[in-house]
Amino acid sequence: MATIFSPSALFSSSSSSSTIPPKPPLPPPLTKPQQFTIPPSKPPLTNLTTTLTAAAAAATVLTTTLPSLADSPAAYQIYYGTAASAANYGGYGGNSDKKASAEYIYDVPDGWKERLVSKVEKGTNGTDSEFYNPRKKSEKEYLTFLAGFRQLAPKDAVLNNLALSDVVLQDLIGSAENVSSEERKDEKGQVYYVYEVDGVGAHSLISVTCANNKLYAHFVNAPTPEWNRDEEMLRHIHESFKTVGSN
Question: Where do the PsbP C-terminal domain residues begin and end (predicted)?
Fold first, then answer.
């Protein structure tokens, strides 16, 4: 017996098979974002050399201690003293007559000023010459002399006698923390008494000798701050004193 196919059934079957939706397309794979690395620019060689040179120069400046005025070597002038009369106050070594008649000499730092000694002062304590630092007048050197001395007395007696006519020296010795004395001779065998007075607020170096039938005393005084700053210079002018001419 023949099978009868219904066209509607066939149509329905084919229609149902044709209505199956297609699969959606797969999305494209994600791609990683590209990273761009900018290479560091190299400085020009000349600029790099200049920078290193400047840095080295700066380091040198920072590590170098600039010399102070106190560290610089001092310059001096020679003072020629006559110890003759109140009218002969003296001057620097440019005066040939002064140099020819000098009885003593000592160094004076450049920039120091001379204080003219009055006749009264010269006759009272025998001050013959004096120079001082204009920035601090109590930092100074001066010389006194007394006639009629052929030789030195004992060291202690000489210092005490000098203090009798010098009030500043009296006060300095009275408040001194230490007073030292020694005897030395120069190349000619002349004897010098050397004193160092370390006071509370000041320092003093004194050199005393006899020559030409006179007693000469050279003083170098300074307040403690100036002494701490200028000790080398002050010791130099102290050691520069000596008598000249016939002894």
Answer: 102-242
Write the DSSP assignment of the chain as a string of letters: -PPPPPHHHHHHHHHHHHTPPPPPPPPPPP-PPP----PPPPPPHHHHHHHHHHHHHHHHHHHSPPPPGGGSPP-EEEEEE--S-TT---EETT-HHHHHT-SEEEEEETT-EEPPPPHHHHHHH-EEEEEEETTEEEEEEEEEEEES-SS---HHHHHHHHHHT-HHHHHHHHT-SEEEEEEEE-TT--EEEEEEEE-SSEEEEEEEEEETTEEEEEEEEEEHHHHHHHHHHHHHHHHH-EE-S--
Backbone dihedral region for residue 148 (phi beyond 0: left; psi -120 to 50: alpha; all else: beta): left
Place of tokens 């509607």: 8
Instruction: Please report the domains of the chain, with CATH numbers, ordered by start residue.
Output: 111-243 (3.40.1000.10)
Measured at the alpha carbon of residue 165, what is the angle toward residues 163 and 170, in degrees to the nearest 5?
35
pLDDT at 222: 97
pTM of the predicted model as reported, rounded to 2 decimal places: 0.67
pLDDT of residue 131: 98
The answer to whether 130 and 140 have CB atoms below 8 angstroms apart is yes
What does residue 34 show for φ and ψ, rounded to 5 degrees? -75, 135
* Strands 202-211 and 76-81, sheet pairing: unpaired
Tokens of 128: 């013959």
Residues of the chain with pLDDT under 70: 1-73, 85-96, 246-247
Q: Is 6 left (phi over 0), alpha (psi -120 to 50) or beta?
A: beta
